[in-house]
Design a protein that fits this description.
Helices cover 68% and strands 10% of the residues. It has a four-stranded antiparallel β-sheet with strand order 1-2-3-4. The longest helix has 33 residues. The chain contains eight helices and four strands.
């Protein structure tokens, strides 16, 4: 009986996740709704796939950096500084929560300015059909289609910032992994 219910439960849980926007117009409507509600989790659901993936990378990297810092960096101001830097990623439940937590007033203001400048115009599909935009006096309001058959459309206006943070977080993680070995060797030498 329990095994018979498993497929049903998986379908129900899978159905709880918001469906991807199937058109640029639907992605635009999601962005407008998120901005009207001033809700970071709704804004996450309006983002393009690449931007969300960048935030997932940031969160994983910061969580690992935080763990490394706790494990091997000796007590002191450097440890305190590193823990504070990586804490948002380590203490956020997931990338969506981290994104919502890290949104700045400037991020909201810029997106609202673009939507306001767009007025009632809807995104126009550009060839080959993987991006769409509304040209505004403030700048382009860009939407991108994700990769894969089931991937949908999303707002790409925060992709640049997400990419910058992703590259910095990845570099931090590489550095912390290298430094961890140095800290462990120093601790071993000190124990002798």
């Amino acid at each position: 009986m329990r095994l018979a219910l498993l497929p049903f439960l998986l379908l129900c849980v899978g159905g709880c996740r918001p469906r991807e926007a199937s058109t640029p117009t639907e992605a635009h409507a999601r962005l407008v709704a998120a901005l009207a509600a001033h809700d970071g989790t709704l804004l996450w659901d309006a983002l393009d796939q690449d931007t969300r993936w960048s935030w997932m990378t940031i969160q994983r990297a910061w969580r690992e950096c935080y763990d490394i810092t706790h494990s091997v960096v000796p007590e002191g101001p450097e440890r305190t500084r590193l823990l504070a830097r990586f804490e948002p990623g380590a203490t956020s439940e997931n990338a969506k929560a981290l994104f919502a937590r890290m949104l700045s007033t400037e991020d909201w203001t810029r997106a609202k300015a673009l939507v306001t400048a767009a007025g009632s115009r809807l995104p126009e599909l550009r060839l080959p059909g993987e991006s769409s935009e509304i040209a505004t006096p403030v700048g382009p309001l860009v939407y991108r289609k994700g990769r894969g058959r089931s991937a949908g459309w999303g707002y790409a206006g925060l992709a640049g910032l997400a990419d910058q943070l992703k590259f910095a977080a990845s570099a931090d993680l590489e550095r912390m992994r290298r430094d961890a070995a140095d800290y462990e060797r120093a601790a071993t030498r000190g124990a002798r």
